[in-house]
């Protein structure tokens, strides 16, 4: 079971849109529509932003959206704001009743 | 409102057993379809799923840690626990407990503890 692959960093200017990719395999991301995304500020617990590929929990801004194609999932943040600058992690259900996280992506708002 | 709180020793010696507890408040650990999980994060690194336990006691473990991990539920105390044996410096991390709120789910977690730092050192 290998970690999902995310870019180490992405950046964008305020108001722009960015996309963070999360690449897995046919045994996890590609097989199940059970990808979730977490936002984590330094020293804090992760916060659920997206679940089941594209669903937003109550209270999460609609600027956050998720999608999936094949073995890759994506998190898109539109209308970038300074407060979005932090770390993001994807997570997928995998075969044999396990969960696997991505390595994390640091988002910088320029 | 469901809340989780981790507790346990902040320092563990190499080769010994790491033991942590997650206290559940604002809800019952025996809620139908509830899964209770542990996730860790080494300093400066990403998140790693350790395992999850169903309210009935069925366990699910990360294959890379399976031989050293034991999860358990104590319904009388409304808490669940993690034991990790034969620890090394590589087990130094912030350990989080987490769950999905009302309705339960294995696949994602929307309630997290604040995390507890465990350092493995002699």
Q: How are the SSEs ordered, and which strands pair?
A:
The complex is a heterodimer of chains A (110) and B (122).
Chain A: E1 9-12, E2 18-23, E3 35-40, E4 47-50, E5 64-69, E6 72-77, E7 87-94, E8 98-101, E9 105-109
Parallel strand pairs in A: 1-9
Antiparallel strand pairs in A: 2-6, 3-4, 3-7, 5-6, 7-8, 7-9
Chain B: E1 3-7, E2 11-12, E3 18-25, E4 35-41, E5 48-54, E6 59-61, E7 69-74, E8 79-84, E9 93-99, E10 111-112, E11 116-120
Parallel strand pairs in B: 2-11
Antiparallel strand pairs in B: 1-3, 3-8, 4-5, 4-9, 5-6, 7-8, 9-10, 9-11
Tell me what you see in this structure.
The complex is a heterodimer of chains A (110) and B (122). Helices cover 0% and strands 45% of the residues of chain A. Chain A has 110 residues and is an all-beta fold. In chain A, the strands form 2 sheets. In chain A, strands 1, 3, 4, 7, 8 and 9 form a 6-stranded mixed sheet that branches. Chain A has a 3-stranded antiparallel sheet with strand order 2-6-5, with no helix packed on it. The radius of gyration of chain A is 13 Å and the shape is globular. The model of chain A has no long low-confidence stretch (mean pLDDT 97). With 122 residues, chain B is mainly beta. Chain B is built from no helices and 11 strands. The radius of gyration of chain B is 14 Å and the shape is globular. The chains are: A mainly beta (110), B mainly beta (122). The A-B interface holds A 1, 3, 34, 36, 38, 40, 44-48, 51-52, 57, 89, 91, 93, 96-104 and B 37, 39, 45-49, 52, 60-64, 96, 98, 105-110, 112-115.
């Amino acid at each position: 079971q290998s970690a999902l692959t995310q870019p180490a960093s992405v950046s964008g200017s305020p108001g722009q849109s960015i996309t963070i990719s999360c690449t897995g395999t046919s045994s996890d991301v590609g097989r199940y529509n059970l990808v979730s995304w977490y936002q984590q500020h330094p020293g804090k617990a992760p916060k659920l932003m997206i679940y089941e590929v594209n669903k937003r929990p109550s209270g999460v801004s609609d600027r956050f959206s998720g999608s999936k194609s094949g073995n890759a999932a994506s998190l898109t943040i539109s209308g970038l704001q300074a407060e979005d600058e932090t770390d993001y992690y994807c997570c997928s259900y995998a075969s044999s009743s396990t969960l696997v996280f991505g390595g994390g992506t640091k988002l910088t708002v320029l | 409102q469901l809340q989780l709180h981790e507790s346990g020793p902040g320092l563990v010696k190499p080769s010994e057993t790491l033991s942590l507890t997650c206290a559940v408040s604002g809800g019952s650990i025996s809620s139908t379809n509830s899964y209770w999980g542990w996730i860790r994060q080494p300093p400066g690194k990403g998140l790693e799923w350790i395992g999850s336990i169903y309210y009935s006691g069925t366990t699910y473990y990360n294959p890379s840690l399976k031989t050293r991990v034991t999860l358990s539920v104590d319904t009388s105390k409304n808490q669940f626990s993690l034991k990790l044996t034969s620890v090394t410096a590589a087990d130094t991390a912030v350990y989080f407990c987490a769950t999905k709120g009302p309705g339960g789910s294995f696949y994602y977690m929307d309630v997290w503890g604040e995390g507890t730092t465990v350092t493995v050192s002699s």
